């Protein structure tokens, strides 16, 4: 009887486990402000106001996951980051959306990681580290950032620094050579918030399939054939 009870408990855990799977998470300095919540890759999650330190406020911190045919995308934004103190502070923001399923073929997949900082006042800096996590994991405190990175992913963007009213952006591209479903898109935003500063940041990850050489050759043949046909008709 005890063995039967134990077996039934194990079966129940197996059946319930997928239902408890979290699909998005936003955390600031290791403390969740949104999620972990089961929702699926097409989701928008927002933290209306977060104050990791006295005098420092992050407004409308959000993450959006978009799953289209052959395309996966994650976008993180803040409406504003304001530091009213005379001391600089460093903030680490983690964003995650899981259960993405495409693209996984063809073998080459473009991974584009974009970062933007739009500053009004103060001296600030922003570094974005993106990850395509093949373990389909989340971020601290629920998980560990970038447990199983996909080979060839874009990785970390160069640091962006601003003083006063400035806007700076950069993009890192990678070519992923192997990927399987399900996977998560996760980001780590490391931000140094200067004294008496106001600014906002935007981060993005986009995965798109790279056409196979045979497809490119076929397309070129079709274009060449059409152009020859048009020349004959015009002649």
Helix and strand topology:
Elements: H1 2-16, E1 24-28, E2 31-37, E3 43-53, E4 56-68, E5 71-77, E6 80-83, E7 89-100, E8 109-121, E9 123-133, E10 160-163, E11 166-176, E12 183-193, E13 197-209, H2 213-234
Low-confidence stretches: 1-21, 214-224
Rough shape?
A: globular
The overall strand count is 13
Number of helices: 2
Keywords:
single chain; 16% helix; disordered N terminus; alpha+beta; 235 residues; 13 strands; globular; seven-stranded antiparallel β-sheet; 2 helices; six-stranded antiparallel β-sheet
Structure description:
The longest helix has 22 residues, at 213-234. The chain has 235 residues and is an alpha+beta fold. It has helices at residues 2-16, 213-234, and strands at residues 24-28, 31-37, 43-53, 56-68, 71-77, 80-83, 89-100, 109-121, 123-133, 160-163, 166-176, 183-193, 197-209. Helix content is 16%, strand content 52%. It has one domain (24-225).
In a few lines, what is going on in this structure?
The protein is built from two helices and 13 strands; from the N terminus they run H-E-E-E-E-E-E-E-E-E-E-E-E-E-H. By secondary structure, it is of the alpha+beta class.
